[in-house]
Specification:
The protein has 454 residues and is of the alpha+beta class. The chain has 2 domains: 231 residues, Enolpyruvate transferase domain (UDP-n-acetylglucosamine1-carboxyvinyl-transferase, Chain); 210 residues, UDP-n-acetylglucosamine1-carboxyvinyl-transferase, Chain. It has 15 helices and 25 strands. The strands form 7 sheets. Strands 22-23-2-24 form a 4-stranded mixed beta sheet. A 4-stranded mixed beta sheet has the order 3-15-17-16. A hairpin with a 6-residue loop joins strand 12 and strand 13. Helix 8 runs parallel beside helix 10. It is elongated and about 70 Å long. It starts with 8 loop residues before the first strand and ends in a 7-residue tail after the last helix. The structure holds uridine-diphosphate-N-acetylglucosamine (UD1). Uridine-diphosphate-N-acetylglucosamine (UD1) binds next to helix 1, helix 5 and helix 6.
Amino acid sequence: MVCGRNNKSYLKSQNLKIIGQNTLRGKVKISGAKNSALVLLAASLLTKEKIILDNVPLLTDIEKMGNILKNLGVKLQKKDHQVIIDSKNLSIQELPFELVNGLRASFFCIGALLARFGEASIPLPGGCNIGERPINEHINGLRALGAEIIIEREVVKATLVEKKSKLFGANIRLNCPSVGATETLIMAASLAEGRTVIENAAREPEIQDLCQMLNKMGAKIYDAGKEKIIIDGVQNLHGCSHKVIPDRIEAGTFLIAAAATSSSITISPVIPIHLEAVLKKLEESGSKVFIKGNSISINGKSINAVKIKTAPFPGFPTDLQAPFMALMTIAKGRSMISEKIFENRMNHVALLNKMGASIVVNNNIAHINGVKKLKGTDLIGTDLRSSAALVIAALVSENVSNVYGLEHLDRGYEEFEYKLSKLGVNIKREFKNGLFNNKKDSLENELEVNIEAA
Ligand code: UD1
């Protein structure tokens, strides 16, 4: 998912070479959740004391967020998976577009900056390869909390309403349970004067993680993980140590990869309840799943077609829609996958069809006719989770696949090929020189296939 303006070229210098028809065996260590770590980094701006974050995944998205914080004057100390954030000496300035480009979560800083300093200036995160991704819920909510917001030359400028020195609590009802907007508003409300109630709030585990850390910092947030969240604003927040929760999307991706290759693997650490909807669909499609403490084992057997509709948590996550579709390409029977969260999250369909899958998309619903086998080929991932789907498809394919566009995978999967190779997959990262250009490259042209007709 490359958010931002017309980001149309793809790294050709690296690709994953995958020799297909793999069986996976062994254990995988699941990294810290990217989406949690991103918002926790933004939340660290709320205090001038030190925040110690553990289990931070080593990913390019996290690096980008780190660079944004550094640009604001934050001191970051990194050692392995620990990051110490010192936001004592911040200078509020407009973030350069180059820094926020491609990182939707950069916008989540707006709530924290506004709450602590009474002003913030952040370029619009822009559209994205998976959809428009508006920010109206963030803006409307911040306005309800007493922010004055103007958008000038694609920069969102927020200040406090006249004569106010703080944001003030409000009752906010989101039109859609946006994860990012819920997070922005929780951060802003935690230092506001009085009580804020957010209704129709998102319930994703990453929001619960954010609230846990904020409460450790002295915030008063009640009912995180429910549709109605209550936040009593406090004067100040202080430092704390916090461990990022395990990445449920990375975990789900490995489980789906095991199901697709009829393999047996164990993943840990995970919080199994975060994966309930995914485990249910894996079992329904024929896999055996065993939960023991913070680990999940899967025994991939037959693959039967199932119906899936993506939904906000605790529903089936949109971030695993593409990987699950790769599994359904070789299922027995016809499956149906409806994408309900993003309007353009079917970039993988044309590529899976190129590998021999039989998928037709109509009104954001993929109708998948299971085939016996896929064939390996050269592919360019165009967003993070589509790229993961291509890797899964490559694992089950005959012959060799080369997956390009690794800048997407590297955003969200820590040491993906290393973890897969430890499970016995024949996978290697190759390094070359050059860039694909959208307009000229023939592989890229294939991505421009009209997916409605694919
Ligand atoms: C987060 C996750 C992303 C995940 C998504 C949905 C991060 C960094 N990213 O993205 O991986 O796929 O949740 O689970 O945490 N919407 C509006 N107005 C808004 C905001 C959102 O209409 O102001 C719509 C979006 O267009 C989309 C839906 O709400 O259709 C969900 O978006 P949202 O939950 O906000 O996703 P993100 O927070 O951007």
